[in-house]
Amino acid sequence: MPQDAHPFRSVLYMPGSRPRALEKARTLAADALILDLEDAVAPAEKPNARELVAEAVEAGGYGKRKLLVRVNGFDTEWGEADIARASAAQPDAILLPKVESAADIARAALLMADAGAGEHVRIWAMMETPRGALNALAIAESHPRLEGFVLGTNDLVKDLGAAHTPDRLPLVTSLGLCLLGARAAGLVCVDGVYNAFQDAEGLRAACVQGRDMGFDGKTLIHPDQIAIANEVFAPSTDAVALARRQVEAFEQATARGEGVAVVDGRIVENLHVVTAKRLIERAETIAALESAA
Ligand SMILES: CC(C)(COP(=O)(O)OP(=O)(O)OC[C@H]1O[C@@H](n2cnc3c(N)ncnc32)[C@H](O)[C@@H]1OP(=O)(O)O)[C@@H](O)C(=O)NCCC(=O)NCCSC(=O)C[C@H](O)C(=O)O
Ligand SMILES: [Mg+2]
């Protein structure tokens, strides 16, 4: 996560065709919401969902939650009209499905500009195909509107012919390529969903794995998943306390003219201090967000 940026610990999808979910989301503790026009919406409902989502964005009331509208792909009859209507509603971002190249981002950016999307309306890319993962760096570096990647692990599993396994070993290469591209370009990177939405322990394990790989947060499909993602992706009290001690010990070492400190039997060098400061800043950003909610 870029420093002092908005957190994306919990990013909740909701079908754009469900007015009750769009309403309920105004009270949920998610850091960001994906108002979905793509896979969660049946073909017959798409035009109606487009309007419902645009009206929800225009009505506001979502507080500090970031609002992303996931549109349909360019290969569908709805994609371009979704981008035009969503752009006019001015959400925080438009999320493009199945991005495979820099050209996909450029095409969306042009449509958004034509439809009057303000400069503040960012682009996010679903990374969920083999070609997309292989092109991750070129996509990540392609456009100033691009702010983040969302991993689409269901589509990746489908296209790879892989299996959903608890350790996610079949996905590690794809996840890693997308993380590398995002980090090299300074983008936010959010992990895929955990489908068994009533399995809290399975979700927790998946969040811990995603956090340890470097993801900023997890996409979610049910409100009951929010608290776990918020907890796992926030720095713990112990981690913040350790980071503060590392910063302090390193400052004292520097004052003595030394380049290395030792905390709890481990060395602390300048690079560890960078990580520690980033963690403290992230904790402070989250605390400020939660106290404003
Ligand atoms: C999975 C669900 C279909 C379950 O829905 P439901 O049976 O209604 O759940 P509950 O009765 O437990 O709901 C309790 C209350 O919470 C509200 N609710 C439920 N889900 C959401 C939500 N996602 N956002 C907001 N609010 C939600 C209900 O309205 C109930 O409220 P109340 O009336 O006040 O009691 C459902 O959760 C669902 O549809 N989830 C989203 C599914 C989805 O968006 N899928 C597409 C995204 S996943 C994907 O595509 C990933 C990617 O592309 C890939 O390739 O991997
Ligand atoms: Mg998908």
From TrEMBL:
Residues 9-223 form the HpcH/HpaI aldolase/citrate lyase domain. Substrate binds at residues 70, 128. Keywords: Lyase, Magnesium, Metal-binding. GO terms for molecular function: lyase activity; magnesium ion binding. It comes from the Bacteria. One of its GO terms (biological process) is oxaloacetate metabolic process. Pfam families: HpcH_HpaI. Mg(2+) binds at residues 128, 155. The keyword Metal-binding applies. Its cofactor is Mg(2+). Belongs to the HpcH/HpaI aldolase family. PANTHER family: CITRATE LYASE SUBUNIT BETA, LYASE BETA SUBUNIT, PUTATIVE (AFU_ORTHOLOGUE AFUA_4G13030)-RELATED. This is Citrate lyase beta subunit. It comes from Amaricoccus macauensis.
